[in-house]
Design goal:
InterPro entries: H-NOX_domain_sf (IPR038158), Heme_NO-bd (IPR011644), NO_sig/Golgi_transp_ligand-bd (IPR024096). GO terms for molecular function: heme binding. This protein is α+β, with helices and mostly antiparallel strands. The chain has 2 domains: 57 residues; 113 residues, Alpha-Beta Complex (H-NOX domain). The protein contains 7 helices and 4 strands; from the N terminus they run ααααααββαββ. The longest helix is centred in the middle third of the chain and has 19 residues. The radius of gyration is 16 Å and the shape is globular. Bound molecules: protoporphyrin IX containing FE (HEM).
């Protein structure tokens, strides 16, 4: 997984909890490398261990933590890739174009980057399905990111996000709907 995701996880833990929680988390996850940088790709296993330990420490489920973390990631991801965002987009448009713009760019930056494939079907101006496909089985993170995107566009109150298949699969269908 891209170092940016680890760097943001570190910041998430430091801001939601504190620095010593992060150190404790690294220790519990048996990781010595305290720092990650955005130029490298790190083993997915490290992320699973960190989130797994965080779940034990907080009493939240790994899925809940993935969702919260996904929501937290969005402003930074938007900032980093702002050149690819079109000013006329709102939540559903942005989701519709993630695969062909942002994730495409992420894949081109480094052969080791493997963001999930998001097959998006726009059913109407107010509804779409995201078919998430990834061996990482992190669709809970995707659900959190969708919530974060809705918040970014000030649509948190009107956007409904609902996984329609089990959240732990390699393929998960997520329904996103705007209620007017
Ligand atoms: C500004 C928009 C976005 C940017 C810049 C972005 C960027 C990234 C990057 C850099 C990674 C790490 C890839 C790797 O290490 O191989 C990633 C992973 C991921 N992205 Fe995105 N992303 C964006 C939007 C989205 C959206 C809208 C969703 C969900 C609908 C999403 C779902 C995910 C998930 C779930 C992962 C974790 C890896 C996996 O499940 O296989 N991303 N993204």
């Amino acid at each position: 997984m891209h170092g940016t995701i680890f760097t943001l996880l570190k910041r998430y833990v430091q801001t939601q909890y504190d620095h010593s929680t992060w150190i404790q988390l690294l220790e519990n996850a048996d990781l010595t490398a305290a720092d990650f940088d955005h130029k490298h790709v790190y083993p997915d296993e490290h992320l699973y261990r960190l989130v797994g330990e965080a779940a034990t420490m907080t009493g939240l489920s790994a899925d809940e933590l993935h969702e919260k973390f996904g929501e937290y990631l969005v402003p930074d991801l938007m900032y980093m890739y702002q050149k690819l965002l079109r000013p006329e987009w709102t939540t559903l448009d942005m989701l519709e174009h993630t695969e062909s713009t942002m994730h495409k760019q992420v894949r081109q930056e480094n052969a080791g980057n493997t963001p999930p494939v998001l097959h998006v079907t726009r059913i109407s101006p107010d509804e779409l399905f995201i078919d998430y496909v990834s061996a990482r089985r992190m669709s809970a993170l995707a659900v959190g990111i969708v919530r974060g995107v809705a918040r970014y566009y000030d649509e948190a109150e009107s956007i409904e996000v609902e996984p329609t298949t089990s959240e732990n699969g390699e393929q998960v269908r997520i329904r996103v709907r705007r209620i007017r």
